[in-house]
Amino acid sequence: MTIFVVFTVMSAVFLVIGLATMRLLKLYQLQTKRIHDLQNQITALCSGAAGTDDRIHKFEQTLSKLRDHQRSLDLSANHQPGYDHAIRLAKKGADIQQLINNCNLSDEEAHLITTLHGQRNVH
Q: Where are the domains of the chain?
């Protein structure tokens, strides 16, 4: 009878160990799947971040080019002929040649300013 009791106890112990092992195996498989899913998500996030970095870099390059272009436009605007001064001279009666010489205007610019602002048009 003692062998039967020992066999029954050992069977119960093996059954508990087997059930615990199966439970741990299922938990291991579930956690392995979760880890794999998280690795995939991290990979996707890193890929997206790399794409974002590229877009930000291109945006910064474009912004830099626009700033440079704006600076060159600002510099060229500061070196343009003095239209305000030419208009004042035309209103005082300066002729086309005087506007060309004194204000560094082209012939066409001087004609236009004289036509628009010269003394002939003053009423």
A: 1-79, 81-122
